[in-house]
Write a structure and sequence with these properties.
Elements lengths: L3 H16 L3 E4 L4 E4 L3 H7 L5 E4 L2 H7 L3 E2 L5 H12 L2 E8 L5 H8 L1 E2 L3 E25 L2 E12 L2 E3 L7 E4 L11 H18 L1 H49 L3 H24 L1 H19 L3 E25 L2 E10 L4 E2 L13 E4 L5 E2 L5 E2 L6 E2 L6 E2 L6 E2 L5 E2 L6 E2 L4 E3 L6 E3 L3 E3 L6 E3 L3 E3 L6 E3 H7 E3 L6 E3 L4 E2 L6 E2 L5 E2 L6 E2 L4 E3 L6 E3 L3 E3 L6 E3 L3 E3 L6 E3 L3 E4 L8 E4 H7 L1
Parallel strand pairs: 3-4, 5-11, 6-14
Antiparallel strand pairs: 1-2, 2-3, 5-10, 7-8, 7-11, 8-9, 11-12, 12-13, 14-15, 16-17, 18-19, 20-21, 22-23, 24-25, 26-27, 28-29, 30-31, 32-33, 34-35, 36-37, 38-39, 40-41
Helix pairs in contact: 7-8, 7-9
């Protein structure tokens, strides 16, 4: 059973030789190291291969092997080599050829457009590898480990570069300038790794330190309590002897008591002068600090290698087509991370795997591609940026129309052309004509003088006439004509026959000689008595002679003996005379 310390040591040695890019063969009982760097062989004083074991039993089994234990020469050589090794290397990473079409089609969906061509331009990309050697020492133990971190764009990458081939790069080709931010990111990540590595150790040290501190506190508190009790005991004896002295009678007893009082007062005074509490507190503080130092964890970190790794990076030029519209976009591809930088939606500015082309050639994601409700073209939020002031729907700049009058923006459903001036106007700036039912701008209406109706200029010419009497304008809805002479009349000069309600001019209406109301010729009769014109309501039939007479032509003749007067027409009366 491999104990924890041996396992940590094995992992440390394994990481070290991987860091040196040696060929490592891992077996259950040993490690075999091939192809060690020449500078390490010279430093160790022995050429590879090395067979490494981690306990005596394994050494007995294999014979010609190096035993790796705490304090062994081989392990000490590794530590010294790491302490002395700090360097910067430039590496070129060999990555297989990339198929642009395959990578693009794998990552991107082309929705309303087609991919017609892909161009490829190769460049370089860099990442930095910071390798730290950490040594954690506590009590009589030491824990050591190597921590490599790959940093790109100030982010820690989880990479395994063992599967790639490297070749030495030229330091003169370096274009990386400021490594300070990357170094800080690596140090922060190293702190996180160390926290995990020493978590259990810290808990163990804290537990031991707490036990020792409790023991020291208990020990010194007990000493102080004992001194306090001793002082109280001497003071109590002085008090008792003083009480006995007050009641003593014989000189011999008085002298003995005074000697005892002096003796114990000297004890009390000596303890007080000694300052035992302060002395014990100082001593306690010293021992506590000593224990804290003893159980402290000392961590030493060294940057033993900075590798700047460059590898192929590509810019893909993608040619797209939608109908007659063509568009080219450039997308970068990281061949190490196998990551395609997705195109950015021109509307929401977020990366998108779904590409649409708007009518104006913008790259748009599925969420941002919309249809203009007027022209039905597919557009993005950048192009579909106008709003109808009436219905508030979004429309494109080609479909928005400004009202000539109020200057507002409107869609095609809420703006019309005035049929007279041909200007574009919104519904609020137009008015419906009662006659033609068309929407006409308010500046092109005239009023009928007779009924105050507003009539568009176009209809005004057809629907408006002049009164033949006063020459005022009158529209076809309020204009009247004489039934007899057909003259056009305004309301002021159009009169109704009291009887038939027909319209007549003043020339073709006569007044009833009895009621004085106006009537047309057809509704008047001539009284057979007086010969005047009379309306039918004021015309009577004489019961005796049958003549049609007006009410004015009726006389009353006294009956016999004056009992009842009888109606008689004028004609009957004249005949009887």
């Amino acid at each position: 059973m491999v104990n924890e310390k041996t396992q940590d040591m094995r992992e440390f040695v394994l990481e070290f030789f991987k860091f040196l890019k040696c060929k490592v063969i891992e077996k259950e009982n040993y490690l075999k190291i091939n192809n060690a760097p020449k500078d390490f062989e010279d430093f160790l004083g022995k050429e590879a291969p090395y067979i490494l074991v981690f306990n005596q039993e394994q050494l007995k089994e294999l014979g010609d092997a190096e035993l790796i234990t705490k304090g062994s020469y081989f392990l000490a050589s590794i530590r010294d080599y790491l302490d002395d090794k700090g360097q910067t290397t430039v590496l070129s990473l060999m990555i297989p050829i990339v198929n642009p079409n395959k990578e693009i089609k794998k990552e991107i969906n082309f929705n309303n457009c087609k991919l017609i061509d892909v161009g490829k331009k190769e460049g370089k990309k860099y990442l930095t590898k910071f390798t730290f050697f950490s040594s954690c020492q506590y009590l009589n133990e030491k824990k050591q480990f190597v921590s490599p971190f790959y940093i790109s764009n100030n982010k820690v990458l989880d990479l395994d570069l063992e599967k790639y081939n490297f070749q030495e790069g030229d330091k003169n080709d370096l274009e990386v300038k400021n490594l300070h931010d990357s170094y800080n990111v690596a140090k922060e990540e190293l702190n996180n790794v160390i926290k995990k590595e020493i978590k259990d150790t810290k808990l163990l040290l804290k537990e031991k330190l707490d036990n020792e501190l409790n023991r020291l506190n208990k020990h010194f508190n007990q000493q102080i309590n004992e001194k306090d009790e001793e002082l109280d005991k001497y003071q109590e004896k002085v008090t008792i002897f003083k009480g006995q002295l007050e009641n003593a009678y014989y000189d011999k007893d008085i002298k003995a008591l005074k000697n005892k009082i002096k003796k114990y007062e000297d004890y009390v005074e000596r303890l007080k002068k000694e300052g035992y509490k302060e002395r014990l507190k100082v001593e306690k503080s010293f021992h506590i600090q000593d224990e804290i130092d003893k159980y402290s964890l000392k961590i030493d970190n060294n940057l033993i290698n900075l590798s700047i790794v460059h590898y192929p990076a590509f810019i893909f030029t993608i040619s797209l087509k939608k109908g007659d519209l063509k568009k080219e976009i450039k997308i970068s591809y990281d061949s190490l991370l196998k990551k395609l930088d997705l195109p950015i939606c021109d509307s929401c500015k977020n990366p998108t795997k779904d590409i649409n082309l708007c009518t104006n050639g913008h790259i748009v994601c599925n969420n941002c591609i919309k249809k203009c409700p007027d022209c039905k073209n597919e557009l993005c939020g950048v192009c579909l940026n106008s709003e109808c002031d009436d219905c508030h729907k979004k429309i494109c700049k080609d479909c928005v129309t400004n009202c000539k009058s109020c200057k507002g923006k409107f869609c095609k459903d809420h703006i019309k052309k005035c049929p007279i001036c041909k200007e574009d106007l919104c519904m609020d700036c137009l008015k419906e004509c009662e006659f033609c039912k068309e929407m006409v701008c308010k500046d092109h209406f005239k009023k009928c003088t007779s009924c105050d109706r507003e009539i568009c200029e176009k209809c005004f010419k057809k629907e408006v006439d002049k009164c033949d009497v006063c020459s005022d304008n009158i529209c076809s809805k309020c204009g009247l004509s004489c039934k007899t002479c057909k003259k056009t009349l305004c309301k002021k000069h159009a009169k109704k026959c009291k009887d038939c309600d027909s319209i007549f001019c003043l020339e073709h209406l006569k007044k009833c000689s009895v009621c004085n109301n106006s009537f047309c010729k057809s509704c008047l009769r001539k009284c057979e008595g007086c010969g005047k014109l009379v309306c039918q309501g004021d015309l009577l039939n004489c019961k005796k002679c049958g003549s049609k007479i007006c009410k004015k032509c009726v006389v009353y003749k006294k009956a016999f003996l004056g009992l009842l007067a009888k109606k008689r027409c004028v004609k009957c009366v004249e005949v009887n005379k």
